[in-house]
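Exercise 7.
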Amino acid sequence: MKLNEANIKTAKALIKKAQRISIITHFNPDADAVGSSIGLYYYLKKRKKDATIIMPNPFPAFLDFFAAGVDMIIASKESKKACKVLMESDLIFCLDFNMIHRVGNQTKDALHDSQATKILIDHHQEPEKGFDVKFSYPSASSTTEVLAHFLTALSGKRAIDFGIAQAIYIGVCTDTGSFSYNCNNAETYSLVSELVGKGVKVDKVHQEIYNTFSENRLRLLGYAIYQKLKVFPQYHAAYICLSNDELRRYRFQPGDTEGLVNYCLNLDGVTFGCLVTERDRVVRLSFRSKSDTVDVNKFARKYWSGGGHIMASGGTYQGKLSDVITALEQQIKTL
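Solution. The predicted structure, written as tokens, is:
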């Protein structure tokens, strides 16, 4: 990955000049969003910068093991404080999203209106125009992979210490489904080798992320697969739908449905999978594909005001869950 040299020079000057720097990521932050935010935060703090992470809402509890001790604002709990920080920033890093509205309702207006220079570091397709400097590489496995190259371009390989390396590895690992998709580039594995060389314990990270479930999360997983999986073999598709009531029954916490959509693709012959979750008044859809001929980025953009990657994407709908299911089942027939 060769980053734009002019953009690197600009970013380096902006960081040097900035007095107050904010880091913000997308609503419902996943491990790539959290990892890239924390990795960049550590880098800026080492350079004595006044840096603040803004998370739109809480991230999955299984990421607490490496996020402990990192100061951040949760905008869904402290929206006024988050907006104030954004408006008073000199420089804002936008990580792991390509459209400003994806930061959520609490902060999207403040992010849009802030006069701070906005630097995008991302790997989603077709970023919008609301960013001043872009490091957008859709071919990368993850935003953390882009961040690794960004930090190296700024300060050389010495820029990445153990804390930053672990944050980057967590993003790369999870955004590739533990290296099961979007990871056919040898450069990704060269990066992972370097991260292990910095002290990252791959087995420990895997244990924390993939093998540390609460009882409620494990029971929800079993219920979703046994009771809620619906398969359309003639269209090579499957989906799982969970309502507000069902999530409450299993005392849902952020991250409890992480990876659930991938179980749809474990079925022989299924190339399109979807997880539908109802959360308060918003229905969220997570799409996955295991075929180059099924582009879920286009699917999400066309039907669900969403987007993402060819094989992993998402969308939202404000309305009745039953309407979503009716529409989704008709859309599946067009695959």
